[in-house]
Protein 1
Amino acid sequence: MDPSLFTRSVLLVAEKNMRIYYYKGAVVIFGLLFPFLMFLTFFIGRNLNLVLFFPAFLGMMLFFSSSSTGPLITPWEKREKTYERLLSLPVTLESIILGDILAGALFGIVITTIVWSAGSLILHLPLAHPLLLAVTLILGGFTFAALGTLLSSPAMSNPSNVMMVSNLIRLPLIFVSGIFIPLSQLGSWAWTNEVSPLTYLVDLFNGAINGNAVYPAGLDIIVLVVVILLFIGSAKLIQQYNLSKGI
Amino acid sequence: MDIIKADNLSKSFGSFRAVDNVSIAVKEGEIFGFLGPNGAGKTTTIRMLTGVLTPDTGSARICGIDINKHPLEAKLKMGIIPENGTVYSDLTAEQNILWTAKFYGMDSISRKKRADEILSYLGLTDRRNDIVRTFSKGMRQRISIACAIVPSPPVLFLDEPTGGLDVFSRRLVLDTIRRMNDEGSTVFLTTHNIEEANELCTVISVINKGKIVATGSTERLKKTFDTTKYVEIAFEQPVKKEWLESGGVFRVENHGDKWRLYTDDPDPAVKYLAALAEREHLKIISVATSTPTLEEAFVQLTGGA
Ligand SMILES: Nc1ncnc2c1ncn2[C@@H]1O[C@H](COP(=O)(O)OP(=O)(O)OP(=O)(O)O)[C@@H](O)[C@H]1O
Ligand SMILES: [Mg+2]
């Protein structure tokens, strides 16, 4: 397979997703409003040190924003019957999956970057490792965009069902990922957090901004890369299986 | 060289064999009609030929490129109207066409030029910037066709391109197919309109219950099934049925003001009728002999199923 053809198809699938799905209500609500509301309910008016908690908030923001387009796209296209058209263009299943992930990741990365910039201006956030922050934004965006695409992979063609199921899975994750209670204060409960990939993202943000990560940055990065590959691989297997049973 | 070549394609859904060992060869420049009753396996076959579904067994080549081994390269050779694949209703007519063109590596100037050309040909120039959601079914189908032909592909796969269209839209679609064929595209199409297939196609394959039951030129298929012959005649005066049962006629039916006389050979029947009219002083209003139709061939091949 010609790599330039493949890259082109990934970018074009992403372009289509950006034009269509960024503006869908569910994406705006669960990707933008939701994390802000969570932030308001949990952090405001509690005399917490916002600077200390901001990395966790960024993690939550990136998590929600980048994982909210993915669950929508494939079910929406199956319902609208554009999925067959998409498949008959010069694409492969892999280019569709990667194009969906790319669009989701960009959505999350851009929004979280804006939130970080606003936070830096208002709260005068420190910035311990600028390069690490950039890596974190990108890696986190792709990890949770891949999660979003994985969540859309079961053969449901009703977008609202998929959104519901994906929130059932996404919501509990933020409670076990060192967002509301910093990892360093969890003590013997730390294991519950170790299974959530979001933990490693929040840890990276802590390291990049405040310079007080729990794990070495290299470990966080390796975990996220492995998780991305796992999510993409499972999404591909599930979608391939569904496709073998017909459109 | 066969521009579309499929060998022993099969596909099952669960234990149901939707397509059973189908082989197809289409020569460059042909308009190939793929006919069959509902559920025969036409769409499933097209999906395998176009790389949308992976066959359980068998293989397919488009312009010599294996669709399952080199899907991107093979798909670049084709334009497709999927069975119920509408275009993106959140994009405008023009956005749909331009975005599709990008997949085929057309540069921005030729994309724009080709889109202008197609939009004007399909009568959609003044709606080009409207969101497709606001379009009627016929207009959406025209956009679907626009997307299929925008790269001027060597091969066009059209799954019921005229389904649900009015006469004018249908004419436009048929003209577009002919025009693309004139410009060098080989066409593979399914339709339920036998008249349309008769008018358009050079070669026809009939599929029934997942198996190909006949392939050949339209005329040859018609000849094969040239078995039912009759003479249809109308007289100004009332006639007795018994009068007509002669001259090699084995069955007489009354159809409105006409009589239909079934025979193995129309020649003596017509001669007899002329003599009868002469003898009984009857005035003949009309007389016609049956010509075999593709529809009859189709019904016989598929057992009316
Ligand atoms: N995804 C699927 N799951 C199960 N059965 C399927 C699936 N897709 C098609 N079939 C079955 O395969 C058979 C062939 O279907 P196909 O759509 O290819 O028929 P067709 O010839 O295109 O019919 P039509 O003229 O109605 O479009 C049908 O019996 C259909 O029920
Ligand atoms: Mg069909």
Protein 2
Amino acid sequence: MTTGPTVLSLRGATKRFGGLVAVNDMDFDVTEHEVLGLIGPNGSGKSTTLNLISGALKPTEGTISLRGTPISHLSAADIARRGIARTFQLVRLLPSMTVLENVRAGAVFGHRRRWGAEADAHAMRMLALVGLDRRANAHVGELTYIDTKRVELARVLASEPKVLLLDEWLAGLNPTELEEGIALIKRLRDEGRTIILVEHVMDAIRSLCDRCVVMSTGTKIAEGTPEEVLSDPEVIRAYLGDDDA
Amino acid sequence: MSMTKRDWQSITLSAVLLAVAACLPLTGDAYMLSIGITIAMYAVLATSWALFSGPTHYISLATAAFFGLGTYTTAIGIENGLNYWATLPIAAVLGAVLAALVGLATLRLSGVYFVIFTLGLAELVRQVVTWGQNVSGQKGLYVLTDITEVHIYWQLLVLGGIVYLTGWAIGRSRLGFALRIIGDDEEVARHSGINTSRAKILLFMVSGATAAVVGSMLAPRYIYIEPALAFTPMLSFLVVIMALLGGTGRLWGPLVGVIPFTLLWEAISASFPNQTTLLLGLSFLVIVYLLPRGFVGLIESGKRRMREREAFA
Ligand SMILES: Nc1ncnc2c1ncn2[C@@H]1O[C@H](COP(=O)(O)OP(=O)(O)O)[C@@H](O)[C@H]1O
Ligand SMILES: [Mg+2]
């Protein structure tokens, strides 16, 4: 499913922290309506790659472009406005606000900006999409773990991004929640959204991703369909060589 | 967004309270009027301080710098033949410009650096003005106008009304929402598409301009101003303490702190004139430890407890 136009592309993206090369010369493209899995052992640089794309960190070298326009020099806010939205590996909500207000943040300031009743209605639609519309007025402190993840996802969706970055969105869920979570992302996929999915859960990778990029110690070691990369000897070695995998 | 019934109620209530406060000079009591001016002055300063610091949690100790800037703008303006009324907007613009410069230089830094920088800035401005006056051979400046205490009081009330309306409008605007998000999680704010520096600088400018205008309005009261008076760091600390005592979570919070604290402070400074700094520090500790969210926090948790009791009853 690599037929659509390229939405996002990384060319030689590199991030150094002092002597450590967390992301090393990454090249890959994401096409429209594609779900790209970014996988690899812990510490292989997946979150750092997302940080480079979302503007949380500036690449040391290389360029990242959105529909052919370089964005790597822009601030995180400008990148968000151009249509790249993300969740965080450790969920980040707005603790003083209600569920609805959290989601409204995405609706008001994101890629497509709304205000007033329109923003609220849109935020409610996003809450319905993630199955949380009945908790709209709850305080985020009262939520279960998966519901906090749902709020964060709804906030991100509310900005109507062109590209969605999900950093281990399924991590830490129990088996029932995991099933719900996979179904939810599947729905986003069926809506034709463009997604980069950082994930450890193999079932999710197999059922959700069109293509995978595998990282190990900052470098891309394989790229292809989930079946291809998961049977690649180098990928297996990278995973088995890591205790956390 | 349209105005709700509650909005109209709070606007009406505020207008009535302001009108009642405006009648204070009718009592003819000079001491009451003098305390009234002090309360009005701190109410405006603390409310506008909290407009910025409430949502962002950045503690600014630069109030004295803006206040002194306004005082000196009026003094120098009048000395050079400007009309008093013309000096107020000039002070507002200068205050906003100074705030923008400070904001550009510091608001990217984390909170602690910001506190230190603003305190340092206030001292720096004071030293520069002192130096400037030494060069020109004067210790201070005379501010001679026909503006009476009653006029100053009413001017402060009008400014207070403007600050409340501004704060209310900001609270309902995208800017106000952006600041709440910034206060909750700046990383989320940035990734949601908010230009966090711009939002913070805009609010700091509102706060700085207001403090400068308060300084302008107070200049005629002092008659003779010098740097140690116009730029006293005590002012910055008092504003912070009063705003925190009231609570910065609501627009009316600082006012609730200003009134009792000003009265208490009047009594303390009269009884222990040499221990004011020590007592100021003590009050700060007491407020931060016992009332971390101020009277507002106390009132709101009281309300919540009442609601819960009703729910269970
Ligand atoms: N802000 C940072 N400063 C220094 N080192 C970092 C920083 N962020 C990540 N790293 C390091 O970069 C490497 C890759 O981390 P990360 O991208 O979080 O991996 P992953 O998400 O694949 O588990 C790790 O060695 C990590 O310790
Ligand atoms: Mg990670």
